[in-house]
């Protein structure tokens, strides 16, 4: 499955027109509005990012065939366990075309315990966000605004990453 579209940039564009930098958090200034496209939970029900308003969301796009995605999944699982009480929600969305049939066995096989399963088989949400590479992770603040993007795999349990996320966890919602 190819995610690089001819008309799309290799990486999402920031407000000033520059491309997001792989391997680091790239802020959106001003933040982007909450994306509208829905995706599915493990039962096949529609979910939107508005459903998570009030929490800081780490929106991770992954696929079972993506080696860097596989490598970072345990740290995303640990991040959810570590910062859930602070108001963080890791929403890991599989882009596998077989949806839950592929994603559920992957979670079982890799020992994921703290994340719920979400799928976006047609990549609608990923495309709305102008995603182009896997893994790509967006951070949404408590108001649901997209405040930054991280392209590539990372260790989500690192002190540097947690410090970046705490900025949003410690901020009060605007509404």
UniProtKB/TrEMBL annotation:
It is found in: Cell envelope. Keywords: Cytochrome c-type biogenesis, Redox-active center. Pfam families: Redoxin (PF08534). Residues 28-174 form the Thioredoxin domain. Signal peptide: none annotated. InterPro entries: Redoxin (IPR013740), Thioredoxin-like_sf (IPR036249), Thioredoxin_CS (IPR017937), Thioredoxin_domain (IPR013766), Thioredoxin_ResA/DsbE_sf (IPR050553). This is TlpA disulfide reductase family protein.
């Amino acid at each position: 499955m190819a995610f690089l579209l001819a008309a799309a940039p290799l990486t999402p564009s920031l407000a000033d027109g520059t491309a997001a930098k792989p391997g680091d958090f790239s802020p959106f200034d001003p933040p982007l509005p909450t994306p509208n496209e829905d995706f599915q939970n493990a039962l096949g029900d529609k979910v939107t990012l508005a459903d998570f308003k009030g929490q800081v969301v780490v929106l991770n796009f992954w696929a079972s065939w993506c080696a860097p995605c596989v490598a970072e999944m345990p740290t995303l699982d640990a991040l959810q366990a570590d910062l859930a009480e602070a108001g963080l929600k890791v929403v890991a969305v599989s882009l596998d075309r077989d949806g839950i049939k592929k994603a559920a066995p992957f979670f079982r096989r890799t020992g994921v315990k703290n994340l719920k399963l979400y799928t976006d088989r047609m990549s609608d949400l990923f495309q709305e966000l102008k995603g182009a590479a896997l893994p790509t992770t967006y951070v949404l603040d408590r108001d649901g605004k997209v405040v930054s993007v991280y392209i590539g795999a990372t260790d989500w349990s690192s002190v540097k990453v947690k410090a970046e996320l705490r900025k949003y966890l410690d901020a009060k919602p605007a509404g």
